[in-house]
Amino acid sequence: MPLICIGPVCVPISAVLPVVLWALRPLWEALPAPMRERIAAAVRPLLAWLDHTVFSKLRRLFGRPSGTGAAAGSARAEQNGASTSASTAPQAIAAFSRALALALDGSSGAVHAIGSTDELAAARELSAARSCALVLDFTAPWCGPCQRIKPHYAALAKKHPSHIFAVIDVDEAPELQAACGVLVLPTFQVCRGAQKVAQASGGVESTLDTIRDVLDQARKGQ
Length: 222
Fold this sequence. Notes:
There is one protein chain. The radius of gyration is 20 Å and the shape is elongated. The protein is 57% helix and 16% strand. About 16% of the residues have low confidence. The N and C termini lie far apart (43 Å). It is built from ten helices and seven strands. The strands form two sheets. A five-stranded mixed β-sheet has the order 3-5-4-6-7. It has two domains: 75 residues, no CATH class; 132 residues, 3-Layer(aba) Sandwich (Glutaredoxin). Keywords: Disulfide bond.
């Protein structure tokens, strides 16, 4: 995935392109209509290769038919379908939920890997049932800031064993990155059930202060 790392965060280039194109929009609108048509025709085939979480904006800008985007989404779903269906079978999800519950009961302070929408849904359900927070760390192996903050995140999980801490590899589960609206890595989200209550981005330890504040407030309210 092409990206730009600026200080403590990494941003996919696909997230920057819509901003650049928006800035160039006056120039685009000043071009003659036939020239715009030729440029749009040349660009359309490339759009299928770009990040589906961002390029709805590009499709609107270049007038790409929405059907093409849907077809690209279906192709990606079919490509990932076999592995996803196997990993999210009811038995696997039940086992995943039991592992989360046992970790909470045992106050292990473990960090759990979430790799599918079903696993995320199970974690949210347990968060709601136990009235505890679900903390999500969106990361990737190639993200330097993500790797630097990883030990601090694990230490935070150890200090708050009554809450669910999880990590989501966006390379393995891009659909979760899209569903949760994450464009910058690392990003941390705190949820209560299905409701997001806090978010912070950055690869420095102070980024986790937002998470600590939410968890400390929850502890005081108990």
